[in-house]
Amino acid sequence: MESGASSGSEARGFLKVYLRIEGETAERFLRIKDYLGLKKDTEVLRALINFYWREKKEEFEFSRKPSEAQPLLEHFNVCEDGVLVLDRSLANSVSKGRIVDVRLRPEGAWCEYRGSRDCRHAGFVLGIPEVREILRRKERK
């Protein structure tokens, strides 16, 4: 499965891309293509790019602001029950970010904002040494 890149084309307002995928990724691509009812591979790529942009637009726009020197995620108030995380990627016209509560359970970190153990907030918290120690103690109980 191949689509169409020539170098420097992005400077003229367009980008031509050659894409070669195989295996599981190719199967996923074809399932998405079929699901969306699209005929051309380029239509699928456009749809996926637009979908991703809609989902992550705030993060892209935020990353271009001068305050980029500050980390997007920052923790404070680590305790036995959980961690408060400031997520600057969730900034809006009212605030410079959102405070997210990540609970510490014997089975791992649980993000109250996303309602998941598999999100960037939970993953971020699991990278904090104090949190790993708290979770080790909770597993022993």
What report would you give on this structure?
The chain has 141 residues and is of the alpha+beta class. The longest helix is centred in the middle third of the chain and has 22 residues, at 41-62. The termini are far apart. It contains four helices and four strands, in the order H-H-E-E-E-E-H-H. Mean pLDDT is 83; it is low at 1-9. It has two domains: 9-62, no CATH class; 68-140, no CATH class. It is elongated and about 55 Å long.
Write a concise keyword list for the protein shown above.
2 domains; elongated; alpha+beta; 4 strands; 141 residues; disordered N terminus; four-stranded antiparallel β-sheet
Termini separation comes to 53 Å
What is the number of independent domains? 2
Class inferred from helices and paired strands: alpha+beta
The helix content, as a percent range, equals 25-40%
Helices and strands, with pairings:
Blueprint: H1 23-36, H2 41-62, E1 73-76, E2 82-87, E3 98-105, E4 108-111, H3 120-126, H4 129-140
Antiparallel strand pairs: 1-2, 2-3, 3-4
Condensed summary:
The protein has 141 residues and is α+β, with helices and mostly antiparallel strands.
